[in-house]
Amino acid sequence: MQETCNNPWPDNISGPVVFIVDSITRTEKRLLEESIGENKPAGASYHVVHRQLREKRRYGQGSNTQLSELTKSNQNPYFVPVRVSWKTRTPRDMQGVSLRDLVTGNREYPGWFQQKLRLRKDQNSYSITVGNGASLAQLKDASAHHVRKHGGDENLVKFIDRSAFLALEKNERHIKGARYKIPQLLSDEVIRKPSVIKALTKISESSGRSMDSLIKEAKLCLNEMSAKPTALGTDLAAALGRFMYTRGFDKDIDYADGDIERIRKLLTEKPVAFLFTHKSHIDGFLLMTIFHDQNLTPLHLFGGINMNMPGIGPILRRSGAIFIRRSFQDDAVYKVVFKNYIDYLGEKRFPLMWALEGTRSRTGKLMPPRFGLINYVVSAHMRDNAPDLLLMPVSITYDQVPEVADYDALQAGGKKRPESTSWFMEYISGLKNPHGKIHVRFGEGVTISEHLDLSSPAPQTRDIQKIAFELAVDANNATPITVNSLICYVILEHGHKAITFSELNTDIQALLELINKLGFAATNDVKNLDDAGIKKCLQQLGTTGVINIFNDGIESVYMLPAGAGRTAAYYRNGLIHFFINSAIADMALLAVNKTGDEAITQFHDEALKLREMFKYEFFFEGSSAFILLLERELEQRAPDWRSSVIQGAKTTRKLLAGITPILGHGTLRPFIEAYLVLARALRMQAEGEISDPKQLINHALTLGKQRVLQKRIHCEESVSGSYFENAIKIADNQDLLKAGGDAADGRQRWLEDLREISANVRFLASMADAKRLQIRTQLEK
């Protein structure tokens, strides 16, 4: 197959040749004509037809007439599409363009002035791309087949233009890679689909509207929602993303071995939608840059129609943004167009992307997925012959997050800062602070056919919920444990008490042993962690104020600064989902006071009770699967746990004292104490119905700050708006927000239950402290 060369002539063609010359500038036109003339075989006859296939403008009447006349030839001419492909001044391999490239014109598609400059410096700065040719007879047959399959009127000239354009685009991608793969001829491809015409016909029959008006409206809907990516737009988005993240993060992004090649292969095999965990404003730009630099097919990013503002809207649209209305359930035409547009993108293997949680996480934990876009996109792929859509979670983990101070203020009851151009410039300026590395991991993915009958007209709500749950679990499993998350876990466990490096390192090593034993995902920095690596991260956390470092004593000590609990918790929460089952096991062991099988049942019941309490914070398997996983992890931590539990409370507590590390208090205490504060605030309310949860949260925030000052809760992490919101869900689930005596009694019982659970947490913390004291005493001796 001929792709690039400086000889556009086809081999073994005896008849006349028609060159469809796709030229935008006079320079390209001249270069192509010279190449055709200089390489003309002896005795060959040819015609040159100039068509600006990449420009959406009318062709000259002479050009249309010439091509139309050639289609009437009795000599069966052979049509060959050609265009100029420009080389960049420096090979990029897997690296995309930078902002400097855009300013200096070092791009694959330079303007006319840059073309002249390049030729003046280097006459070999271009090559000729030749698309696959076809005879007139072949084109006529293909045109007739296209009409039968897709509908519409047969227009051979238009079909030749279309075929020439697509042939050149395909072969040019073989040279320049997938990063410039862009949807072409969108309106024709989507609006003329038989499924669209069929659906619009039904709307016409039921509404009495004419097909012409419905097709016109469908085109307007498509124009409103569809991305219109260009080479310049994708270059610009990638360059901006690279500029943003390299200001404050290491330029080399950390991937799991083989992930990029796995994704590259998947993108050629099936439609893929990427759902990323959302922690920073950088996320979307970062992924677009990654796909561009790794030469992957560009992403189509969903955004709200409110983002289609003058100025920024066209820029985002040209870089791949799809703008959708907030609600369109009652707009039949819009729904038809959206479904078929998404189906078209999947069929052509253009990947989609949006935030799994719909908004940025303010706590560092994965938030519940939003169902809306999952439902819309899955619905678009529900037909008998549809390719199986793969939903792929993407975990983006930052050593430190630039917005963490804003999140801390929001959790403490502050107001969200309004986002504006000045705010965005200030945000970019703030990225210059050192924030460490970025770790990107792709999940295993969820194929919709595993959960749905694709022949059904629409997915069931429960099916979408199951898919969302699987995505959340997959995202959590892919999220790697970082060094900072380990440090913050240990620092928070000690609260505002300073600890030495030796004490910190001892606790980290115990956690690392457990992580390796249970096979949890971790970054390469964690897998190869040594004293120098820990100290480097401690210095970075000290620089950004996450921890305090005191160096004036006989040895350095590290502690949580006053008021920094929520900030440190943001990083700790990146690993907490791995420890949740074992933490619940620790708490459930404390509840055992019986013997024999009754003790095992008691252990299970308490674990399930805690699972129910924390269901708004974490993603748990079903009850049976949860107990199996709980026991499997406990078997790794304490192989003889079952025989100890059967013997009763005394041996069970002895068993617990021997487990290293104990996880119950370090993992669960901040949530339990937050729930306790909210329960106390709720009990203080009048017996009437709680009609304004925000007012209750504000009361809890005030009460929580008092409890921190009184040292009645471990640290200010528990004074968190997000934690209180989940506590309100628990109360609402137990009908404690309603009016009446029953609700008042229920509020008191809930408060007492939480006090008992909180006492158990403090007991676990005292056990862990006693073990540390014993170790420290032995070392001092």
Instruction: Describe the largest sheet.
Output: 8 strands, mixed
What's the number of extended β-strand segments?
A: 17
Helix tally equals 32
Which range does the strand content fall in?
5-15%
Mean pLDDT: 89
Fraction of residues in H or I helices: 40-55%
End-to-end C-alpha gap:
79 Å
Poorly predicted runs: none
Shape: elongated
Rounded to an integer in angstroms, the radius of gyration calculated over CA atoms is 32 Å
Content-based structural category? alpha/beta
Brief summary:
The chain is built from 32 helices and 17 strands.
Structure write-up:
This protein is an alpha/beta fold. Helices cover 55% and strands 9% of the residues. The strands form three sheets. Strands 7, 8, 9, 10, 11, 12, 13 and 14 form an eight-stranded mixed β-sheet that branches. Strands 1, 2, 3, 4, 5 and 6 form a six-stranded mixed β-sheet that branches. Helix 13 (312-318) links the parallel strand 9 and strand 10 (321-324). It is elongated and about 100 Å long. The mean pLDDT is 89.
Give me the secondary-structure topology:
Elements: E1 4-5, E2 17-21, H1 26-38, E3 46-50, H2 61-70, E4 78-86, H3 99-104, H4 112-121, E5 126-130, E6 134-135, H5 136-150, H6 156-176, H7 186-191, H8 194-207, H9 211-225, H10 231-248, E7 254-255, H11 259-269, E8 272-276, H12 282-293, E9 300-304, H13 312-318, E10 321-324, H14 332-347, E11 352-355, H15 372-380, E12 390-398, H16 404-411, H17 421-430, E13 438-442, E14 446-447, H18 461-478, H19 483-494, E15 499-500, H20 501-518, H21 524-527, H22 531-543, E16 548-550, E17 557-559, H23 565-572, H24 576-590, H25 596-613, H26 623-637, H27 641-646, H28 649-658, H29 664-683, H30 693-709, H31 721-733, H32 741-780
Parallel strand pairs: 2-3, 2-4, 7-13, 8-11, 8-12, 9-10, 9-11
Antiparallel strand pairs: 1-5, 4-5, 4-6, 12-13, 12-14, 15-17, 16-17
